[in-house]
Each structure stands twice: as C-alpha cells, then as structure tokens.
Amino acid sequence: MMFEERYLSGKCLIAMPDMQDENFAGTVIYLCSHSQSGAMGFVINQKIQDFSFADLAARLPVRSCNINLYRGGPLEKVRGFVLHSTDYIKGDTVVIDNEMAVSSSLDILNDIACGSGPQDNLIALGYASWQPGQLEQEIVNNCWMVANPGRELIFRTKDEEKWQKAMDELGIDLIHLSPRSGRA
Rounded distance, CA 106 to CA 121, Å? Predict the structure, then answer.
C-alpha cells in the first residue's frame, strides 16, 4: 500500500533523536488531522512554564484554576485548543476517533475549570501544521516515528517521560536506531 493511501489522524509523531528543528526536538505530537490537504497536531509533552492558566483566565471571561498549559506548536501561539476525551462533546467539538476530540470554545475552558469538562484533557496554545506531502516527506527523511497513542500516554504519563514511553511502546531500542534513512 502506498503511503498516500494511509492517513495518520489519531496517531502520534515521535521526533527522532537527531531532530534538527528546535521547535520539535524531543517532542511527541498528537495528529488531529492528516489528509491529502496536509496535517495538523499538538505537541503533548512540553508544558508552558512562563504563562499559566490563571494568566490566560485573566485575559478571557474564564474562571481561573490550576491547570497546565502546553506549547501546542510554533503556529498561532495565542490560539487555544483542548485535546480531550470524547465523554465531552459540544457544538464546536471535532471528533477525531472513538476516544479523542478537539474543542476550542471558551465553554470548554469554563467547564474544565468548574470540574464539568471532559475526563481527560490537555490545553494547548498554538499548533503544528504541515503542507500537503510535507509530513510524508519528513517521515521518509527519518525525522519522525509514528505510534498509536493511548490515553495513558497522552494524559497520564509525565511529560518528561512521554517521548521515551512512546519509543518503548514501539519496541525501539535507541542503541540500534540509525540516524540515517534508507530503502531495502
């Protein structure tokens, strides 16, 4: 089957150890959408350290609480998204698969702050995006590994352990991983 016939929505990208792009070195990215039109996803293992949910709530009509924010990617860093479980579906929610969805309304932020939001959630500011064919070429060029994420990896694994856990779930021993790609 040719790569173009398979799409990766709902999968995770794991940056290869020699990733040169500083925006993506050491990252795990959840792909919300991938098609012939391109791809879009969120970095799920890099908390924002210098801006809090309380800072965000002070700028929006949203109740404040102690919630982590993630650096979703290098594009539109002030735009917020919530990657979450499908137990919460509202009007703006985009369902990715049976377990995952994305919302971007203020309602979900208020619901999370009040304890009535989705069971599992990750709030990302910004996103990562690829033009048509760009992600496929990066995979061919050995920039990314592709994994099937579980909610455990996305929502319950410590951020500093997500990259290694994703590699471990693929059964990859970094000692045997070549930095060069090739064809057999």
Answer: 14
